[in-house]
Amino acid sequence: MSILKTDELKKYYGTGENQVRALDGVSFQVEKGEFVSVVGTSGSGKSTLLHMLGGLDRPTSGMVSIDGQDLSELKDDALCIFRRRKIGFVFQNYNLVPSLNVYENIVLPVQLDGRVPDEAFLKTIVDTLGISEKLNSLPNNLSGGQQQRVAIARALVSKPAIILADEPTGNLDSRTSQDVLGLLKISSNKFAQTIVMITHDEEIAQLADRIVRIEDGKILARE
Amino acid sequence: MFGNRVLDRLDQMLEEALNGEFKESSYDESKISRLETKWKQYLSTSCLLKENLEKEKKNIKGLVSDISHQTKTPMTNIRMYAQLLEESLENGEPEQNRRLVQEIVRQTDRLDFLIQSLTKMSRLETNVVEVKPVMQEVEPLIAEVVGGAQSKAREKEITISCENAELYKAYYDLKWTKEALGNIVDNAVKYSPSGSKVTISIREYELYLDICVQDHGIGIREEEIPKIFGRFYRSEEVHQEEGVGIGLYLAREIVRKQDGYIKVVSTPGEGTEFHVFFRKNA
User: Fold this and answer.
1) Residue B182 pLDDT > 90, yes or no?
2) Which one, A187, A210, B105, B258, has least CB within 10 Å?
3) Topology, domain B134-279
4) Phi/psi at B191 (nearest 5 deg)?
5) How far is CA B115 from CA B125, B210, B248, in A?
């Protein structure tokens, strides 16, 4: 069952001679429960791809569908709600709300959606991620690795159709990175969570079930 | 109690779900829209469960045919050698007799190995035996695993080394992890050239302990890496080597059951690193 599908996805910036083809016909699929990494150097188009997949920007042409929904069919308001319910984001700079404690940060997307967090599920997640002792702390009192674990918990708790992780270890040292990635991998196994991780780092990408390579806005076929 | 419109929509949602074509109608802040999302979530989860069950069924079918295929060869061989032995006994050629007996023993060992692997696999899968990880030192694990691979390694003059194992602790089940790591080290020995080195190294992270087994063997192509953990998977390139394709499958299942994971880094022609990550706390 494919949860994410793109078809001939294109994003061009500018016109004429100045035109930049950030994405130039990207088609791929991600199955439910799969952990896929998208690797590319800077300027390869991988960040543009993530923005398209997450409905953060609209493509020039082509299609993105998540959980059976073609994103182009949605108006901005609906797209915003769609993102909140269906997509969990993990960013390089964690994006936690500094004035809320760890628990409040984790349940924020669920509460924003007017739902009640599934406390039993939440407990399993924070136990798995090793942050159950930190629920009352403020983000600024945590290390970078711990903050990113909170961000992963926040992405998991709403049981999104897919988690998009953009360079999740970009701000972490290599030792902490390994831990955070390990937890991401275990979470994907344990909760059958579909994850797409974008990175420039080959080493980090190896942890995924499958690697998609992108270069000059196109997917690289490997023999 | 409900407006007619809501009831109509609910009815339509059920109808669509029955036909397997439910799609959310809108995404807004209304309760019905939230309910639709939840409904969709429930449907995809049960759909996934159904798909997995189907896959499992197919797996079992495949498993049964694999098992009968795998056991048939040694059985046929044993029968054949036994018949030859019977004939040869009448002619009384001691050298020939001994060779045939050896062959029978070899085939029996192979069958025995296969059946043991299958038993372990089924016990793990049906949760008959539970993997019970505890916090303990890793040295006994390394010692047992290296000891177990030693005789095969000696045949190929391969040295297996490990330093500083006594410094580390991890959260694991000794009996099963011995099996998991043992399979990885056995593979390293099997697919390495004679006279090369297999190195076990340990690295500590905040949450995990990484036990790395490095060889200088044939390596694995990147596209193949996810497949090597599949049941009965054998790479085209190694078909001539003995094996049934259960070792890595077992290894991954065992490590998973302890909330650990395995990472493979390989360069074809240069060698492979298997990193096995164990939790450092319960």
Assistant:
1) yes
2) B105
3) Heat Shock Protein 90 (3.30.565)
4) -100, 20
5) 15, 31, 16
Q: What ipTM score was computed for the predicted complex, to two decimals?
A: 0.78
The pLDDT tens digits of the residues spanning A123-182 come to: 999 988 889 999 999 999 999 999 999 999 999 998 899 999 999 998 888 888 888 998
Residue B219 to chain A, least CA–CA distance (Å): 15
CATH number of B1-129: 1.10.287.130
- Kindly list the domain boundaries of chain B, sorted by start residue: 1-129, 134-279
Task: Please tell me the predicted confidence (pLDDT) of residue A223.
Answer: 39
Q: How many domains does chain A fold into?
A: 1
Nearest to A180 by CA among A212, A155, A214, A211: A155
Supply B115's token pair: 């059946």
SS3 A158: coil
Nearest alpha carbon to residue B251 among B274, B267, B269: B274
Q: Is A70 helix (H, G, I), strand (E, B) or coil?
A: strand
The token duo for A74 is: 């949605």
Compare CB distances from A176 to B26, B206, B259 and report the shortest one's residue.
Answer: B206
